[in-house]
Amino acid sequence: MTATATPAVGRTTERAGGGALAGTGVLLRFDLRRDRVRIPVWLAALTLGTLWVAAAFPQLYPTATERQAAAATMNSPAGLAFTGPAHYLTDYHYGSMLSHQMLGFMVIMVGIMSVLMVARHTRTEEETGRAELVRAAVVGRHAQLAAALILTVAVNIALALLLTLSLGSLGIGGVTWAGSLLYGAAHAAAGITFAGVAAVTVQITEHSRGASGMGLAVVGAAYLVRAAGDSAAGDSAGSGLSWASPIGWAQQTFAYLDNHWWPLLLNLAAAAALAALGFALSTRRDLGAGLRAARRGRPEASGLLTTPLGFALRLHRGMLIGFAIGMLVLGMSYGPFLGDVETRLQDVEVLKEALAQLGGATFVDSFIAMIMTLLAVVAAIYVVIATLRPRSEESSGRAEPVLATGLSRAGWLGSHLAVALVGGPVMILLAGLALAAAGAPTVDESGLFWEIVAAAAAYIPALWVTAGLAVALVGWFPRASALAWLVVVYAGVVGYFGTILRFPGWMSDLSPFGHIPRIPVEGFSWTPLLILTAIAAGLIALGLYGFRRRDLETK
User: Fold this and answer.
1) What stretches of 122-207 show up as alpha helix (H) in DSSP?
2) Fewest CB atoms less than 10 Å from the CB: which of 147, 199, 429, 491?
3) Which phi and psi (to 5°) does residue 376 adopt?
């Protein structure tokens, strides 16, 4: 059966009395069965991450004076861009503090979850050919998308309930049950909106990565639009740009402060319209195809494309370019803070203590060391994505015909790994150069530009260790390869919260990022970098050896 025969299959099903949604319940149960691990992990991570921060606020800001000092620190264009509307600052208790600082960030995570979930159960199924087999049974043309949307909506509602129950039971001043219910509902409403976005993007392109990438780009654009609107609005509740973003709608509820429910109607209306558009567009294309016509390729492949490394680079090109742009923007966004970081943060005692623990000669040096850790963790996200790409190629069946040629297994896996090993350093260096270019001119300190670049370069061995752990899992435990993400999550939590919440030193030592000299706070040292590089080389060799010995696995 070919993809072009799909409309006939759909009409046959509908004539048989099944209807366009026939089989939705069966597919929903099947999708739930497939995500029986992913869904609890997402829900636990999002709920516990929020709960952890909320529970820490009373220790971080025990007095009203310290909370007002934090509010004064946030009341700047840059501060509002990273958090939310200035209206939250009018009464900065623990509840409004949680909603102001966490809602915009966590909604991004929820949006990512929703986009990936819809794409996984729709476009990925078509790309691998499984959807064609399913549609050969009594399954309506809209059943697969309907099942994916129902599952995603249910997961977002479950997240809202978990946040409501966990936050409401904390008993922290200002974190009320009514505010917690709205806070959870805001997450769910925004997540459902981005599920609607994914329902449209999966119709546009025939590739699951492209559909996910477009959906995630919308999530990022929504955040940037919201940030621009809130920073431009000053002391008001938000400018017109704030109201042009689904994330802005969620924040305009002012959970724990004013408790406005009506902005969530905008999220739900947008979600319904986008879902309807997705269903309508799905009828205008063949199964497995996209609305966007594939570009004609060259009559002959370039010489680079005929090599393993060139072919791998071509597959990674979109993700590589997208992350490179993102790292440049992220580095530049932190740069303007350097010039007045001491003035803005001098009244926030908890940050002063955290930065003092780093031992920097100046406040600026300590702040650079802390920010560089976060930039390195973001670069590690790219490294894991690139290193796990061979596993995706293998499970989808695309690796088998490639390996049926004269290409060795080590050469095939090594070509993808090479992109990750070079791409990771490129990401962190781009972020470092952007941070140095935007921040060094604002600080009257000679040599700071190259110190920032050196601080970025020092994290390269830690990125290589991350790639080594991922490829070792691919080589020996392919079904558990997703565990590589634990390295990134752990490094992010310890790197971001470790100093502020005073985690013990051994927790940092468990992460490869914890052994990097924090330049410019600390002097440069070759020893930990050489040890990490040797560990990375050993893990890579182990992974390549394991991949040569095992059978290929396809789903």
Assistant:
1) 123-128, 130-135, 143-168, 177-204
2) 429
3) -65, -35
Q: How far apart are CA 534 and CA 133, in angstroms?
A: 47
Alpha carbons 274 and 550: distance in angstroms, whole number: 44
With a CB cutoff of 8 Å and minimum separation 6, the contacts of 44 are none
Res 9 pLDDT > 60: no
In this prediction, residue 514 carries a pLDDT of: 87
The per-residue pLDDT for 121 is 93
Q: What percent of the chain has pLDDT over 90?
A: 37
Cα dihedral sign, 64-69-74-77: positive
Distance CA(390)–CA(333), nearest Å, equals 33
Q: Which amino acid is at 6?
A: T
Q: Give the pLDDT confidence of 149-169 residue by residue, as tens digits.
A: 999 999 999 999 999 999 999
Task: Answer positive or negative: Cα dihedral of 371, 374, 376, 378.
Answer: negative
- Rounded alpha-carbon distances, angstroms, from residue 165 to 151, 161, 182, 261, 322: 21, 6, 12, 18, 38
CA distance linking residue 309 with residue 417, whole number of Å: 9
Q: SS3 of 445, please?
A: coil
Does residue 108 have a pLDDT over 80? yes
- pTM over the 0.70 mark: yes
Which phi and psi (to 5°) does residue 550 adopt? Answer: -100, 165
Among the listed residues 307, 529, 320, 272, the one whose alpha carbon sits nearest the alpha carbon of residue 412: 307
Burial annotation 162-194 (CB, 10 A radius, 16+ → b, else e): bbbebbbebebebbbeebbbbbbbbbbbbbbbb
| Residue 144 in tokens | 């697969």
